[in-house]
Write a structure and sequence with these properties.
Layout: E1 3-14, E2 22-33, E3 37-41, H1 48-56, E4 63-68, E5 71-72, E6 80-83, H2 95-100, H3 110-123, H4 139-151, E7 157-161, H5 169-184, E8 192-196, H6 200-206, E9 209-213, E10 220-225, H7 237-251, E11 255-256, E12 260-261, E13 269-270, E14 273-274, H8 287-299, E15 304-305, H9 306-313, H10 317-329, E16 333-336, E17 339-342, H11 344-351, H12 354-368, H13 370-381, E18 386-388, H14 389-400, H15 402-418, E19 422-425, E20 430-433
Parallel strand pairs: 3-8, 3-9, 6-7, 7-8
Antiparallel strand pairs: 1-2, 1-4, 4-5, 9-10, 11-12, 13-14, 15-17, 16-17, 18-20, 19-20
Helix pairs in contact: 3-4, 6-7, 8-11, 11-12, 12-13, 14-15
């Protein structure tokens, strides 16, 4: 297959004034070939959309090279068009005018632009709506306009950033099938499609290959070919095997260096000795949410299929994955081949009293989150056993940026208060060591 696009040793960092650069993407090496439909998956906040914007030429990578048809791109990638999650239509323009915007700057006569735009409206199922305004259309039809605007320029590569996530289930499914029909029947000139998604089923249903990113700083964990015939049956054993495989890849602890699990903000605590690593954002899960998850997991039996568990809980993937990640991080559960099971301590936690749970949570959070281990030690060893929260937040901000640091600090304080490791005074913004447990 002919290679259309490649990324070589791409790194992306953002520098905040007075802080160290925050690394979003690290050592990304990817290629995209003619005839491929590729899905990009990864945890929330991993940098999937940033990667897509680098491919589009909307962001210049801090390091590395992005090449289109063998030549490094400078500025906007000329062979690419993009479909956004939010429709991004101009409300004061008609549907036809919105689509024709995709031809701005093209050396074409107005007649040619009009003919091509009318043709693409027919292709995406909007014939007869050319004079309507966006407010007159449903969400699904508005997204069809967005797809039409991207396709009208006849790009080699169509980029889609969570393009179906803002739609209701039935509308999204209908649009997926229609897009696949256009792609498989070669009714559009596009040579490759790259879809950023958090939907594992969506990826297996639509894509020929799944690129799975790690947590931030994102690296390519896996390039997984999806070798299923078209059209795909969601309930088939083969389909569910791929779904389980991706679930397992995305929820297992990541290995770094010698294979130790990378957990916490600066790696796992080991008897008070921390191994510094690239900072990893902690899963945004409260202690009470974890408790409920472990109780439900205990009720589900010895071993449970992740895909079926998410379906049973009626949980969005973006909410489900952090729970699994946090549970695994604290060694209350483990994932193997797409199945999740409680560890012995996880079983004890699920059946324990409130105070017993607090004690067990305290033990596991100190053992498995190095930053919390360090923080607790510093507060305990302080003369007054009291410190300003800004001291710790600035440590985080130096590695993950101010906005992330504030959110992570709130999360950490909540965990440590639940474990009765600290008390926190919201007025003075000071944390004190708690000797009550």
């Amino acid at each position: 297959m002919k290679q259309l696009l490649s990324l070589e040793k791409v790194n992306q960092s953002f520098r905040i004034k007075g802080r160290e650069a925050v690394t979003i993407l690290k050592d990304i090496n990817l290629s995209f070939n003619e005839g491929e439909f590729v899905a990009i998956l990864g945890p929330s906040g991993a940098g999937k959309s940033t990667l897509l914007r680098i491919i589009a030429g909307l962001i210049t990578p801090s390091q590395g090279t992005v090449s289109y048809l063998g030549k490094p791109i400078i500025g906007v990638n000329p062979g690419i068009a993009m479909v956004f999650q939010s429709f991004a239509l101009f409300p004061w323009l008609t549907i036809l005018d919105n689509v024709m915007l995709g031809l701005e700057g093209k050396e074409m006569s107005e007649k040619e632009k009009l003919e091509r735009s009318m043709n693409i409206l027919d292709v995406v199922g909007l014939d007869g709506f050319e004079s309507a305004f966006p407010k007159e259309l449903s969400g699904g039809m508005r997204q069809r306009v967005g797809i039409g605007r991207a396709l009208v320029s006849e790009p080699d590569i169509l980029l889609m950033d969570e393009a179906f996530s803002a739609l209701d289930i039935l509308t999204a499914e209908n649009l997926r099938r229609d897009l696949l029909d256009l792609w498989l029947e070669k009714k559009i000139p596009t040579k490759a499609i790259i879809l950023v998604t958090h939907g594992i089923e969506e990826a297996v249903y639509m894509a020929d290959r799944a690129v799975i990113l790690s947590t931030r700083p994102a690296t390519v964990r896996t390039n997984l070919p999806i070798l299923l015939p078209r059209w795909r049956e969601r309930k088939s054993t083969e389909f569910l095997t791929y779904v389980d495989k991706i679930y397992s890849l995305m929820t297992n602890p990541e290995t770094v260096g010698n294979g130790d699990a990378a957990s916490g903000v600066f790696g796992a605590a080991d008897g008070g000795r921390q191994q510094r690593r690239e900072p990893v954002l902690l899963p945004n899960v409260t202690a009470s949410a974890l408790t409920g998850f472990l109780e439900l997991l205990a009720d589900s039996g010895e071993k449970t299929d992740l895909y079926k568990l998410a379906d049973r809980f009626i949980m969005d993937i973006k909410d489900f994955f952090p729970l699994v990640e946090f549970s695994n991080l604290l060694r209350f559960s483990a994932v193997t081949e797409g199945d999740i099971a409680l560890t012995e301590d996880g079983k004890i936690f699920a059946e324990a009293s409130v105070l017993e749970r607090k004690a067990l949570f305290k033990q596991h959070i100190l053992d498995n989150v190095a930053f919390i281990h360090e923080m607790a030690q510093k507060i305990e060893n302080d003369t007054d056993q009291k410190m300003d929260i800004d001291y710790f937040q600035e440590q985080l901000a130096a590695s993950i940026g101010d906005e992330n640091a504030e959110k992570q600090m709130d999360l950490i304080i909540g965990w440590m208060r639940y474990a009765e490791l600290i008390t926190y005074d919201d007025v003075s913004e000071q944390v004190s060591f708690d000797n009550s447990l």
